[in-house]
Design brief:
The chain is an all-alpha fold and about 350 residues long. The two termini are about 25 Å apart. The protein has a two-stranded antiparallel ribbon with strand order 1-4. Strands 2-3 form a two-stranded antiparallel sheet. α4 crosses α11, α5 packs parallel to α13 and α6 runs antiparallel to α13. It has 15 helices and four strands. It is globular and about 50 Å long.
Length: about 350
């Protein structure tokens, strides 16, 4: 038993730390190649903070434990709102912005609602999962476009963008345009040609690749030991994913949120939570369900996913309430999350 617990803990630690290293070194390499901070933030950083959930969920799906993957995503998203956002507000209250509320906030709620509608038949099919992933790609392109242009975009604008097939050209234009950087392109080219610059670039790419491999390997062991723990404790796999695995895989978001709150950067706190939640539902479940259809237990359909929608709507209310999240509101969010965990265990939600 001790060896199983040790492997579980070590796998979780390695998974989270490897994801941290991947974000750091992949970001360094991307900047050295001239990729803008905007694109890095929308891709490497946002996906990187969801990398633990992505790796563990895809691994769970590949090993035939789809309920664990769904529980992990739903639990992580609820933890992002109740535990991470609430904890960050307790550390230091922070201001919020209308732009994130109107664009990213409603995309987050819509993603949770779409998940609920898609699993009413107790399964997330491969076609539905692929559609999730495509929506996520469209969201990243839309966010990059509106951020670059400084557009005051709303959810309705995203819907118009997504359903207008002619906007597909924007994806090609986005990829073909050379990103703007603070350094001249010639300086970047010279820097990458220098021996020292090349050595650092290769080192950063190498560390990022090794970190990614560590994430994949540790995720496989984590899933195996989580299934073992569920069997030993007589608990549903979904409940283990909803609580234990979700709490572990959300550590990158927790670190980022608390650091941002201490610096008074409310946009980073809220953006981190919303971006991670959107990526978890659309990208993580999209890829996990693309590997194999995901079975969704009835308790997820009638209990935990509706709770996710409730927490998501609650986050929108907190953001809009005076455009500031206070310490009292943070304590309330933490209390709601604690109550959710207690009720989940008492009722053996699986």
């Amino acid at each position: 038993m001790f060896s199983h617990i040790a492997i579980l803990v070590v796998s979780l630690v390695v998974l989270v730390k490897s994801a941290d290293w991947f974000v750091e070194f992949a970001g360094r390499a991307a900047r050295r190649l001239g990729v803008s901070d905007l694109i890095i933030g929308l891709t490497i950083t946002s996906i990187g903070t969801s990398l633990p959930e992505l790796a563990s969920s895809v691994s769970a799906s590949a090993q035939g434990h789809g309920t664990l993957a769904v529980g992990n995503v739903v639990g992580a998203n609820i933890a992002n709102i109740g535990l991470i956002m609430g904890g960050a507000a307790v550390v230091r209250p922070f201001a919020t912005s209308r732009r994130m509320h109107d664009r990213d906030g409603f995309v987050m709620v819509a993603a949770a609602g779409l998940l609920f509608l898609s699993v009413l038949d107790n399964v997330l099919s491969q076609m539905e999962a692929i559609a999730f992933a495509l929506i996520y790609v469209a969201y990243v392109v839309f966010a990059a476009k509106t951020d670059r242009e400084g557009t005051d975009a709303r959810f309705a604008d995203f819907m118009e963008f997504f359903f207008d097939l002619r906007r597909a050209r924007a994806l090609l234009r986005l990829g073909s345009r050379r990103p703007k950087t603070t350094e001249p392109a010639e300086a970047v080219a010279v820097q990458t040609k220098e021996g020292a610059g090349r050595s650092r670039l290769f080192l950063e790419i190498g560390v990022a690749a090794l970190s990614c491999a560590a994430v994949v390997i540790s995720a496989r062991f984590l899933v195996q030991e989580a299934v073992w723990a569920a069997g030993q404790l007589g608990l549903p796999e979904n409940l283990i994913g909803l609580t234990l695995i979700a709490l572990g895989t959300t550590q990158p978001e927790l670190v980022i949120a608390i650091t941002a709150a201490r610096r008074g950067n409310g946009d980073m706190v809220v953006g981190n939570v919303m971006g991670s939640n959107i990526a978890n539902v659309l990208l993580v479940l999209g890829l996990a369900g693309g590997v194999r259809p995901l079975e969704v237990p009835e308790s997820s359909v009638v209990q935990t996913i509706p709770m996710l929608i409730f927490f998501s709507l609650g986050l929108l209310y907190l953001i809009k309430s005076g455009w500031r999240v206070t310490r009292r509101q943070g304590l309330f969010a933490l209390s709601c999350y604690a109550a959710f965990i207690v009720v989940a265990f008492l009722n053996n939600w699986g």
